[in-house]
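Project standup — Tuesday

K.O.: blocked on the structure for the chain from last sprint. Re-posting the sequence here as requested.
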Amino acid sequence: MERESDYLYKIVLVGDVNVGKTYMLMRYIHGEIPKDVHNTIGVEFATQKIQLKDGGTVKAQIWDTAGQEKYKAIIRAHFRRAAGALVVYDITNESSYNNVQNWVQELKENADDDVVIMLVGTKLDIVLKNRTRRKVAKEEAKLFAEKNKMLFEETSSVQNHRVSDC
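H.V.: unblocked you, prediction finished:
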């Protein structure tokens, strides 16, 4: 009997409400963005098998967490045993970026010490259409990520730009 995958990794998506966590997840898993959008209540998750170059397989279990303050106590428990975390903010919403430090702190307090964290700016498509919509400088976010030993990327789920790189 063949095993389903060689490795299982838990990845959590965290960030304020409406920054695009669910869009990222749906684009990555299903290859499209959802037609009906709803705020995540608590935690939802999906899985994706990834074929490695050496022939092995990895199963990524991706947990989409609610961004509302009232769910923070619930989602903290889901940070444990996560191999990775994407801290997501909206590059057109300065407030969502200002809360990134709080999300990073929540991860440091509740996730395992070896969790790999990536800072992800979303909604790049909006800025590419109208540069004045950008409220968070890419250089500022990249520097924050470097100072905090995090990976960094800007994405667009609408245009499927760099989503799978995260």
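K.O.: great, moving the ticket to review. Strands lie at 7-15, 43-51, 57-65, 84-90, 116-122, 151-154. The helical segments are 21-30, 72-76, 94-98, 100-110, 124-129, 138-147.
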